[in-house]
């Protein structure tokens, strides 16, 4: 909302200057963002909250200044001279849809002389600094002036260009269109409310007038419209047509239907002053709106209990009266106030208490010497999520935030956790993002592509966020927290190392096995199991997904970890993955090489060794695989290292040899391995 200092002080003579007035409004809850000198005046740019539409008019702001500064307001005049001819004898108004137009008022002026506005009016509109409200002619400028003054949009029609000399407020018919005053034609639907004459639409109701009946230098008779339109209907039409105006801005937020007669008379008076002519007697007022009396009980002694400081009862009542509330007789210590129609936000006693407090000034609220601060309970799952995100950052990954919604088909809907199609939403914000994601990995690929497009090619990305898997039936979802990561490299060893470190640091034993999925390159993915469930998946992204579909230059390594399952395993094990003191005693390391069938994966060998549960074995590490000269067809030589430690003593060769023999026996008997 833009207005000027001199305009406000015309209705409330505040003497202390524009900056002081801006501070006064800001301190009472109507924030003035800027004060800009403009000629001999100062433009105020005011932030008006959605519940205070009355402050979109200068009179509303003047009322605020009056209450805060205790200066009586001076409302403008709205009387005019009318002739003997009745408005109803010259025209008529029919409202076919009173739900969308509860009130429509019309006045008719004859013999006006359209021309330039007087300098004071032109300067006032120019000081606003809005090109849409620039001076045009004396009739149109008056409608814009009253719009800003009373927060009431109006429209002036060239009466002689109205077919049938009458107004019909109705829904548009199929196939109808209208050329608006921006000289663009808009196709209408039956959902749009229009102002029509006897033959065709001449105005998009509440949004913008049409060229067919706009005011020109040849206009002599003016029909003045002042109406109230249902806010949601105006909002929907404005958005659908991509057409907005200062009028639609106000109608969408709701204006005061009770203020329509005053605004119409005010505009008629100003037009008569500047353009001459005579106003026909009587106002056509088609009104299905009925005012509802709103009485709010108010106890002055309740103010202290809510706000913590005292304001005299007489001062409280004076503030409410200055804001337009009327005191009516009440019983005992309870007063009742009639709320004016321009303040729909006031409905309860606490609303009136807030009004008094903001006008007095919230800086009067006393400071508490002690503030009690409660630290919320830190849940194990929350601590785990934070810890994993911190660890990934320590590994050099950049945390990203991606969209919860994704495509319902194709590679963006792929998930290693389920093969069921994702849940689709009824009204997606974007057509291409119409489903709830079932994995973070497609989202990370998209994030990588966006960075690649701006020249960032070597980024490790991670995200800790929710995915939505199918529930027990088609109508429910299983919402889980996942940790996803994306890393560069010729293989997935780095990604596997990160995932295994995250698990090992939290004391969770796991097994690894080969995994095949459309997201991953064949033979280059692994599945991690623990606690009877799938804990993580890691692998190289398939070229068909990463390069051909997602548009990356090279396929990265991907990993995804189920933090919900990990949290349960950590709690069940009673381990938070905290610090474990390393052994003070030296350990021993042994290498083992076995001839195995080529199809035997390393995961089977590792499972066989760890499954022995040997007390001295602290780690089992893959070393290398050899195939070639000296190794028969269909066979391979696999070498791994086993670390032995004790936290109580230095190990003897005999102790290590005994457990080493158990390892050789397990690999030989379970996997058919031959020790080399």
Describe the protein's architecture and organization.
The protein has 676 residues and is an alpha+beta fold. It folds into five domains: 68 residues, Phenylalanyl-tRNA Synthetase, Chain B, domain 1 (2-Layer Sandwich); 206 residues, Phenylalanyl-tRNA Synthetase, Chain B, domain 3; 70 residues, 2-Layer Sandwich (Phenylalanyl-tRNA Synthetase, Chain B, domain 1), CATH 3.30.56; 194 residues, BirA Bifunctional Protein, domain 2 (2-Layer Sandwich), CATH 3.30.930.10; 88 residues, 2-Layer Sandwich (Alpha-Beta Plaits). Helix content is 30%, strand content 26%. The chain has 19 helices and 32 strands. It has a seven-stranded mixed beta sheet. Strands 4, 6, 7, 14, 15 and 16 form a six-stranded mixed beta sheet that branches. The protein is elongated.
Q: What are the segments in which pLDDT stays under 50 over at least 5 consecutive residues?
A: none
Percent helix among the residues? Answer: 25-40%
Q: Briefly, what CATH class of the largest domain?
A: Alpha Beta
Average pLDDT = 90
Alpha-carbon distance between the termini? Answer: 85 Å
CATH homologous superfamily of the largest domain, by name? Answer: Phenylalanyl-trna Synthetase, Chain B, domain 3
Q: What structural class is derived from the secondary structure elements?
A: alpha+beta
The structural domain count equals: 5
Q: What proportion strand?
A: 25-35%
H/I helix tally: 19
Q: What is the level-2 CATH architecture name of the largest domain?
A: 3-Layer(bba) Sandwich
What sort of overall outline do the alpha carbons produce when their principal axes are compared?
elongated
CATH topology description of the largest domain: Phenylalanyl-tRNA Synthetase, Chain B, domain 3
What is the makeup of the main sheet? 7 strands, mixed
What strand line-up does the widest sheet have? 20-23-24-28-27-26-25
